[in-house]
Design goal:
Elements lengths: L5 E2 L10 H7 L1 H4 L10 H21 L6 E4 L2 H21 L7 H4 L3 E5 L4 H12 L3 E5 L9 H7 L4 E5 L13 H10 L3 E5 L11 H4 L3 E5 L10 E5 L14 H4 L7 H16 L1 H22 L3 E3 L10 E6 L4 H10 L2 E2 L1 E2 L12 H5 L4 H5 L1 E5 L6 H20 L2 H9 L3
Parallel strand pairs: 1-11, 3-4, 3-5, 5-6, 6-7
Antiparallel strand pairs: 2-8, 7-8, 9-10, 10-13, 12-13
The protein binds pyridoxal-5'-phosphate.
Length: about 400
């Protein structure tokens, strides 16, 4: 065991900051009332939820009544997509209300091929149910090109969902242009902004999106709480049936402490964004530059500059990412690779395949995502331990042996 642990996997989750934790604690132990009740500790809880809603609305340029709290980013993504298509189906069933033929037949929906599974798998399910789905390709940097979306739009397209920034390769999409295209053709536009929140300015009016997802644990808030922005007037069905919470659209007693934590964390992330990004970009750019200099046969995955401030994703040819993660862990570094190891399969990530990496190269990918707790010394240490690990794995690699013999593969 290494004596220190350096966490370089902030895209997976972050620690709750001390300031956020302190704001949450009273809502677990003192103001524990059910916000729907009438006595004073309940009124305090209700007020905290509504203050949090106002803070989140302010941070996103939304109205307070357009913010809905959820149990996760995944839930918010599911709600946005299922709620939108179900509202269209509802319009179709309501023939008596005079839904137009166009409204009735909107069975085409669009997403990108590099979405998080919380979006992608919902589209796959809807496809099985008979929806026509277009999975937009991306370019070699992971960008969805606006002209590609334009060409895919049809008269029966009801929904477009494209993530603001990718969780694996960090590519930041031109959401404003993409949303304008969807809107001009009468479709709703949703963006999964879970990775972008706190890292890039998000103003729902400026972006022109109809729905936007965030999740607290990606920006130093607690796990198990997210939020969905739904533009006032957008036709999106309720998601969880039951009580009247969240304007009767998402039932369930509110996670008051979690909601307080989400709002406090988002407020801090937005207030400190410029300083934080400056620090993270310096760590990111140094790590990319020196890794590429010190380790031959390495490629940068993602966009050279349209990328999240904390994201490094590099592919080391001829090696296998999972072994690299284990060796890094033994040296006390927590990172992530390009395989879908979470699903128990060894398939390379759909994102790396979508940007055109061959399977073998995708397998040798390493994702490092820095956070506010990382320092220049952490990067020094990374640069000390990573090159010998890659070298050691290449020495054992038959692919590398072939390459050395033939000078190519
Ligand atoms: C983490 C993540 C999610 C899921 O959020 P949870 O709150 O963990 O469910 C969705 N989309 C992206 C891009 C993510 O990074």
């Amino acid at each position: 065991m290494a004596e220190r642990f350096i966490y370089m996997d902030h895209a997976a989750t972050t620690a709750v900051s001390t300031g956020v934790f302190e704001k949450m604690a009273p809502y677990l132990t003192q103001h524990y009332g059910n916000p729907s009740s009438v006595y004073s500790i309940a009124r305090e809880a209700r007020r905290a939820v509504e203050d949090a809603r106002a803070e989140v609305a302010g941070a996103l340029g939304a109205q307070q009544n357009e913010i809905y709290f959820t149990g996760s980013g995944s839930e918010a993504d599911n709600w946005a997509i299922k709620g939108a298509v179900s509202a269209v189906a509802g319009a179709s069933a309501a023939k008596a209300s005079g839904a137009s033929a166009n409204e009735r037949n909107k069975r085409h929906i669009i997403t990108s091929s590099i979405e998080h599974h919380a979006v992608l798998d919902v589209f796959k399910m809807l496809e099985k149910q008979g929806f026509r789905v277009t999975y937009l390709p991306v370019d070699e940097h992971g960008l969805v090109r606006p002209e590609v979306l334009s060409a895919a739009m049809r008269d029966d397209t009801s929904l477009v969902s494209i993530m603001a920034a990718n969780n694996e390769i960090g590519t930041v999409q031109p959401i404003k242009e993409l949303a304008a295209i969807a809107k001009s053709r009468g479709a709703l536009f949703h963006t999964d902004a879970v990775q972008a929140a706190g890292a890039a300015p998000l103003d729902v009016e400026d972006l022109g999106v109809d729905m936007l997802t965030i999740s607290a644990h990606k920006f130093y808030g607690p796990k198990g709480v997210g939020a969905l922005y739904i533009r006032s007037g957008a036709k999106v069905d309720r998601f969880i049936h039951g009580g009247a919470q969240e304007r009767a659209r998402r039932a369930g007693t509110e996670n008051v402490a979690g909601i307080v934590g989400l709002a406090a964390a988002l407020g801090a992330a937005v207030a400190d964004m410029d300083n934080n990004n400056k620090k993270l970009i310096a760590l990111r750019d140094r790590a990319i530059r020196e890794i590429m200099e010190r380790i031959p046969h390495t490629v940068l995955n993602g966009h050279p500059d349209r990328r999240l401030p904390n994201n490094v994703n590099v592919a080391f040819r001829f090696i296998e990412g999972e072994s690299m993660l284990l060796l890094l862990d033994m040296k006390g570094i927590g990172a992530s690779s390009g395989s879908a190891c979470t699903s128990g399969s060894l398939d390379p990530s759909h994102v790396l395949l979508a940007i055109g990496l061959p399977h073998e190269t995708a397998h040798g990918s390493l994702r490092l995502t820095f956070g506010l707790d990382n320092t220049d010394e952490d990067v020094d240490y990374l640069l000390e331990v990573l090159p010998p690990i890659v070298e050691r794995l290449r020495d054992m690699s038959p692919l590398y042996e072939d390459f050395i013999k033939k000078g190519s593969v």
